[in-house]
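BACKBONE GEOMETRY TOKENS
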Amino acid sequence: MGGVKIYLNGKLVEKIKAQISVFDHGLLYGDGVFEGIRSYNCLVFRLKEHIDRLYKSADAIELKIPLTKIEMIEAVIVTLKANSLKDAYIRLVVTRGVGDLGLDPRKCKIPTVFIITDKIALYPKEFYQKGLKIVTATTRRNLPQALDGRIKSLNYLNNILAKIDAIKSGTEEAIMLTYEGYVAECTGDNIFMVKNGELITPPVSLGALEGITRDAVISLAKGMDIPFTEKLLKMDDLYGADEVFLTGTAAELIPVVNIDERKIGDGKPGEITLKLTERFKELTKTDGVKY
């Protein structure tokens, strides 16, 4: 059995040979876009939606991807099969490509495309059973007018600084607030709360990513007749919630039981969180592209 294969600019190469130039603007300036995708038992969950978001992000930064959407889907499948993975985390990256040491994107003639397929466990299993403790980051979310959070770009320094806040506090994740003090999202996940049976999440217009898992959970909630709304939330709203949970491709759904040393609800994963988690698990068995 061979080693890990990486898709790089149309070819499958060994992991050790998967190299890009130090003049690639994805490395020099974070100039590029990416997607994190999951496959479950040879079904890539919502692959078409992920690909659509990738191209939407690329359009937003005027980056022309050198593959069609169909070709990109085929490239993902080819990479998964080459690595004999049934359950995988897929990292799909498109950079501006090789240029000079200036910012000018016109100097980058050919975008770089690479696909990594591997395993991922974002949080230990015990946190899914008992719930996470998280904090509020001191780092604020970028203003949408400066860098739209709906663009899944390679420039993640804002999120990384907030992640460092979490690490310093001894927790796994941190909530990022807008400059006005409203809840936006966490460093790598969207956030939901439940109050009096109603599911609530911040609008993505505040600077949050329009998550694929977020959208799936919203659809599931509507199908389960769980009242749902998007609205502005302050930290006091989260502190007073009956339930809080996070969503993301790598995280899936994970309950939060403590924020800033304040117990959420009864300090255990809530009923609606658990119901949505079960429904989401079922959804991952049917909603996607087989390979």
In short: The helical segments are 25-29, 47-60, 69-82, 125-130, 157-168, 212-223, 235-239, 271-283.
